[in-house]
Specification:
The chain has one domain (3-194). With 221 residues, it is mainly α. α1 (3-28) packs antiparallel against α7 and α6 crosses α7. Helix content is 87%, strand content 0%. It has helices at 3-28, 30-38, 42-81, 85-108, 116-139, 145-166, 169-216. The two termini are 43 Å apart. The longest helix is centred in the C-terminal third of the chain and has 48 residues, at 169-216. The model has no long low-confidence stretch (mean pLDDT 88).
Length: 221
């Protein structure tokens, strides 16, 4: 990927993270925002919204760190496990989803509390992963399905760990959706940016060769 396309990906993902967190924060903390609007506290309303968008920038950077870390891990996995890498990723996906439900339920559930909310959060992650992986496989090839699902499930949960450990309800959703959207965006746009970078390099090489040929032509003077 060329540096220009990488910067474009970085900045676009930052914007997506900030906007998504602002929107999700508005929904999750609606009662607080509604009270400010009722009191005509516009400046305070805007300050909280800007704060949420600033938090979204942090979520976006965390998402991008996870994305580029996964690209490295994926290469190592292919080198070490070769044809078994997809099977290893599938096992890890199942393991992470199980842990996401089992350990959270054992750690935070109160006596008599249903397991359904814990299954629901894992279900959101899995459904988002399946949809993104299907789109990725459709845009590229079927071999991309398991790696895309692994990234969307396993890497997203790892990025989500700081809030999972606290288990504060509003923060769970405030962090989850921006991470899912930023991760999905990077995954789905990566091959397009790589192709664009290849075309830009080819165009640059053609221009360099054309300039060299022009310089070698004898002068008419």
């Amino acid at each position: 990927m060329t540096s220009r396309n990488w910067v474009n990906l970085f900045l676009t993902t930052l914007v997506i993270g900030a906007v998504t967190t602002g929107v999700v924060g508005f929904i999750v903390r609606w009662s607080e925002f509604q009270q400010l609007l009722n009191d005509f506290s516009i400046m305070e309303f805007l300050s909280i919204l800007l704060w949420l968008m600033g938090v979204g920038l942090i979520f976006s950077i965390l998402s991008q760190m996870g994305f580029f870390a996964y690209l490295t891990v994926h290469r190592f996995g292919l080198g070490i496990f070769r044809s078994l890498w997809n099977a290893v990723q599938f096992i890890l996906i199942a393991f992470v989803l199980f842990d996401l439900v089992y350990f959270r339920f054992n750690s935070f559930a109160e006596k008599g509390e249903s397991i359904l909310p814990y299954l629901g959060l894992a279900g959101i992650v899995l459904i988002a992963g399946l949809v993104t992986a299907f789109l990725k496989a459709k845009q590229t090839n079927k071999d991309a399905f398991i790696p895309a699902l692994f990234f969307m499930v396993v890497v997203t949960v790892i990025e989500w760990v700081p809030v999972l450990r606290v288990n504060e309800h509003s923060w769970l959703y405030l962090m989850l959706f921006p991470l899912l959207i930023c991760n999905a965006y990077q995954l789905l746009v990566l091959h397009k940016l790589n192709q664009k970078s290849i075309e830009e390099r080819k165009a640059l090489d053609r221009n360099i060769k054309a300039n060299k040929k022009a310089q070698k032509k004898p002068s008419n003077a």
